[in-house]
UniProtKB/TrEMBL annotation:
Matching PROSITE patterns: FGGY_KINASES_2
EC number of this enzyme: 2.7.1.16
The organism's taxonomic lineage, starting at the top: Bacteria, Bacillati, Bacillota, Bacilli, Bacillales
Catalytic activity: D-ribulose + ATP = D-ribulose 5-phosphate + ADP + H(+); L-ribulose + ATP = L-ribulose 5-phosphate + ADP + H(+)
Annotated ranges, domain Carbohydrate kinase FGGY C-terminal: 288-486
Pfam families referenced in this protein's UniProt entry, alphabetically: FGGY_C (PF02782), FGGY_N (PF00370)
Organism field: Fictibacillus macauensis ZFHKF-1
Entry GO CC: cytoplasm
Name the UniProt record assigns to this protein: Ribulokinase
Protein family membership: Belongs to the ribulokinase family.
Gene3D superfamilies: 3.30.420.40
Length: 551
């Protein structure tokens, strides 16, 4: 008789549950639940206005996903709850939630629901750039060893800058907050009744390491005297290694989900990181691109080496036994979506509608006829700032080479190419540091939907790219960790390696580089690098100043 595991993936716009067979990884049922409140970028649900670069969410939406999606997959697959042995949680990160002393989100309380800083700060909340720069400067001045693990620069997306922003802009909210916690850890605590932190979330987003822990109390005191005791108060909680069991479902949580009380719950994992196991890329030299609204790049290595602009270099960070690196691009699918939704003309929309195609399909078909460089365009992929390797959320996008003859599909192709160039720049940072990048694996929605995009990536990087056929890769990865949390005696696995070997299909599509295109892209990439270094290193004040004027 089969045993089953559930993976729940909390994304940027929605959450999804996936039910799979524990012994084979066969996907039996999935259910996607859109967030009712979506991403709050201009105002709270009540209408209270938000400043520029804010991105908040409503924690009610996360609970709604659990209570809706998990029972739905059990019903669709006709699986009884007693046969489900584990559940894993994958979550966007860094997604920071302030909790009251009763364990509830601060924004649930009447006294604070109109206070923007009491809400969940999503990963794409970039309003803490000044605080991130301050943390970087202090760490450099003090020669803090933790800075090397993060490529020499702290990102505005991470937990500590967001907490510091609360302290600086709303000290009464900071004082009222009993605990700042990643939303993934909060969901696990709601399921198990135990407050624990994931080594994966803490390692990449909260400056923690298994050897050194968090930065010292002295560092936080130097940052701001009000943070002197933050490690024992507002950032407290035992850190558990990724791949372990966080606990078991409480009676209340079991009722929400329609599962049995005592079902094993895995330690939370960052959503993109779950794609590493789900791709079966659990060995050094295999770079995984989790491609969606943004792209997260994960790479395993035998030994730690300093790499410029990484988002984290964490021992046992994703796969036990290896050093795991993370880098990223803050706008990929979002960038293509921006062009289609905000910049494509009515004429283009009408043509696509006449042919019965989506705008993405129509533009991709038209763009595919061009050779690399034939459009005469090159773009910088910084519509949502630069995550790696410059780590500067205040940088903005650029499109160079426009003429009166430029066509919409040419611009679309230039944007696709820009994201591929951004990935190549990241790969170069690894190889320059002596870390091998032998194979590329792409997971997520974009690789399945856009053949032109993936061929461009293969040509630009000059590497074969393997595409997973899992329909819900991130949720599958969460399910793998759920199977490990259950353990071999209950029908799961005793390691993530065993789970990946048995639950991940070896059937993949691949895109191979085309030699003539590779040569042309090498030339075009030099123009990208020239723009990258000019706007990102030599004269970032140009983009910073324009953004400041806008605000």
């Amino acid at each position: 008789m089969h045993k089953y595991v559930v993976g729940v993936d909390f994304g940027t716009e929605s959450g999804r549950a996936l039910l799979v067979e524990a012994d084979t990884g066969k996907e039996l049922a999935t259910h996607v639940t859109p967030y009712e409140h979506g991403v709050l970028t201009t105002a709270l649900p009540s209408g209270t206005k938000l400043p520029q670069d804010w991105a908040l969410q409503h924690p009610h939406d996360y609970l709604h996903v659990l209570k809706t999606a998990v029972p739905a997959v059990l019903e669709r697959a006709s699986v009884v709850k007693e046969d489900v042995i584990g559940i894993g949680i994958a979550f966007t990160s860094s997604t920071v939630l302030p909790l009251a002393s009763n364990g509830e989100p601060l924004c649930f309380l009447d006294d604070y629901k109109e206070e923007p800083h009491s809400w969940v700060k999503l990963w794409k909340h970039h309003a803490a750039q000044a605080e991130a720069d301050e943390i970087t400067a202090l760490a450099q001045a003090r020669r803090e060893p933790f800075l090397q693990r993060y490529g020499g620069k702290i990102s505005s997306e991470w937990l500590v800058p967001k907490v510091l922003q609360v302290l600086r802009e709303a000290p009464h909210i900071y004082e009222a907050t009993d605990l700042f916690i990643e939303a993934g850890d909060w969901i696990v605590s709601r399921l198990t009744g135990s407050l624990l932190r994931s080594s994966n979330l803490a390692g990449y987003k909260a400056l923690w390491s298994k050897d050194e822990g968090y930065p010292s109390q002295a560092f936080f005191t130097a940052l701001d005297p009000a943070m002197e005791s933050i490690l024992s108060t507002k950032m407290r909680g035992e850190v558990l290694p990724i791949g372990e069991k966080a606990g078991e479902l409480t009676e209340e949580a079991a009722q929400w989900l329609g599962l049995a009380q005592g079902t094993a719950v895995a330690v939370a994992v960052i959503d993109a990181h779950a794609g590493v196991a789900a791709a079966g890329a659990v060995h050094p030299g295999q770079l995984v691109l989790a491609m969606g609204t943004s792209t997260c790049h994960m790479l395993l290595a035998e030994h730690p080496e300093p790499v410029v602009g990484v988002c984290g270099m964490v021992d046992d960070g994703i796969i036990p036994g290896y050093v795991s690196y993370e880098t990223g691009q803050a706008a990929v699918g979002d960038l293509f979506g921006w062009y289609v939704e905000q910049a494509a003309s009515h004429e283009v929309r009408d043509e696509a509608e006449k042919e019965g195609k989506s705008l993405h399909e129509w533009l991709s078909e038209k763009a595919a006829v061009y050779l690399p460089g034939e459009t005469g365009l090159v773009a910088l992929d910084w519509w949502n700032g630069n995550r790696s390797v410059l780590v500067d959320a205040s940088l903005t996008g650029a499109l160079i080479g426009l003429t009166l003859a430029t066509k919409p599909e040419e611009i679309y192709r230039a944007l696709l190419e820009a994201t591929a160039f951004g990935t190549k720049r990241i790969i170069d940072s690894f190889t320059d540091a002596g870390i091998a990048v032998d194979e590329l694996y792409a997971v997520g929605g974009l690789p399945e939907r856009n053949e032109l995009l993936m061929q461009i990536y293969a040509d630009v990087t000059n590497r074969e790219i393997f595409i997973s056929h899992a329909k819900q890769t991130t949720a599958l990865g969460a399910a793998l960790y759920g199977a490990v949390a259950a353990g071999g005696e209950r029908g799961g696995y005793d390691s993530i390696f065993a789970a990946a070997h048995n639950m991940v299909s070896s059937t993949r599509t691949s895109y191979k580089p085309q030699p003539d295109h590779v040569a042309r892209y090498e030339e075009l990439y030099l123009y990208y690098l020239e723009l990258h270094d000019f706007f990102g290193k030599e004269r970032p004040s140009l983009m910073h100043g324009l953004k400041e004027m806008k605000s």
